[in-house]
Design brief:
This protein is mainly alpha-helical. The chain has one domain: Na+/H+ antiporter like fold (Up-down Bundle), CATH 1.20.1530. The protein is built from 15 helices and no strands. The termini are close together.
């Protein structure tokens, strides 16, 4: 019951953010610095506090591979769904567009604050490790596969992916926490107290940011043909979640966390790479916004049933 109350509170904050966006109370140019505040300050602090003292186990290697393989599975699904249709319609860009926008998961600013306090510390650590595998693809891996840039060789593409990974505050935080857990070191109480004070703001700021970012002014004429992609994304993720829950040889708390995180929405990086590829990024942004709404509903339902 407490978990459901937390989720409903998060949904209420998302609605507040959307209201502030629609009535113009919150300036849109303030969304980016707010996003930076969440990614570089409140989220790392909340992760440090929540995972303080957690014990490592060999089970926790599996979520990393689940995060990586889930992206590959969705990329393959995108190709299967759109290759023939792209040939029939004479739209070769449909395949790379689908690969970029069907795969990937928004973990840092959605799944983490949404599940923090609902899953156990070990379950939360599995989400962090899932995000490491996910980040390999989201930060450029999928773009390297989907878009054939003749001017950029594989070495340059790998370098670009590596630079994006190294610039991720989340990944540095995971590495720091994992190093502490491996050495069985607990941070001094004053540092944990500071992180706790700052980290408490993360769920509210992250959910408010989601509400401010969702754009409900959708060009339905462009969006309607892509509804099938969105449906197949969640069908594919439901199948992956079922496989993870029933067949992975890991603790139940880890399997439950993976089921939740597989319902996360599309990452914002998909829109950025769609723009970089000179594809229809406005439609990609519409898909991203709708996926947030769908994921809120699905993750809420999943929490209730699990």
């Amino acid at each position: 019951m407490n978990a459901l109350a937390d989720v409903l509170a998060y949904v209420a904050v998302i609605v507040i953010g959307q209201i502030l966006r629609l009535n113009g109370t919150f300036p849109r140019d303030a969304v980016r610095p707010m996003n930076m505040l969440v990614l570089y300050v409140t989220l790392p602090c909340s992760v440090i506090v929540f995972l303080s003292g957690v014990k490592l186990s060999s089970d926790l290697l599996i979520p990393f591979f689940v995060g990586l393989l889930s992206n590959w599975a969705l990329i393959a699904l995108a190709v299967l769904l759109t290759r023939r249709e792209a040939e029939r319609r004479g739209e070769p860009n449909l395949v790379p567009f689908s690969m970029l926008n069907l795969s990937g998961y928004n973990i840092g600013t959605f799944a983490m604050p949404f599940t923090m306090g609902i899953v156990s510390p070990v379950g939360f650590l599995s989400i962090c490790l899932f995000d490491v595998g996910n980040a390999v693809m989201v930060t450029g891996g999928t773009y390297a596969i989907a878009v054939r840039d003749e001017k950029a060789g594989w070495r340059e593409r790998l370098r670009s992916i590596g630079m994006r990974l190294l610039s991720s505050s989340c990944l540095w935080t995971y590495a720091f926490v994992l190093a502490l857990a491996f050495m069985e070191v607990v941070l001094p109480r004053p540092i944990l107290h500071f992180c706790e004070v700052v980290g408490k703001a993360n769920p509210f700021l992250a959910m408010l940011l989601i509400g401010l970012s969702v754009n409900l002014r959708i060009d339905w004429a462009k969006f309607r043909p892509l509804v099938k992609l969105l449906v197949w994304r969640y069908v594919g993720n439901a199948a992956l979640a079922a496989l993870a829950f029933f067949f992975l040889p890991v603790a139940e708390e880890i399997r439950k966390a993976l089921v939740l995180v597989l319902m996360a929405p599309m990452p914002a990086m998909g829109v950025i790479f769609t723009m970089k590829a000179k594809l229809d990024w406005e439609t990609a942004a519409n898909l991203n916004s709708v996926s947030v709404i769908v994921s809120v509903l699905l993750m809420t339902a999943t929490i209730v049933f699990l």
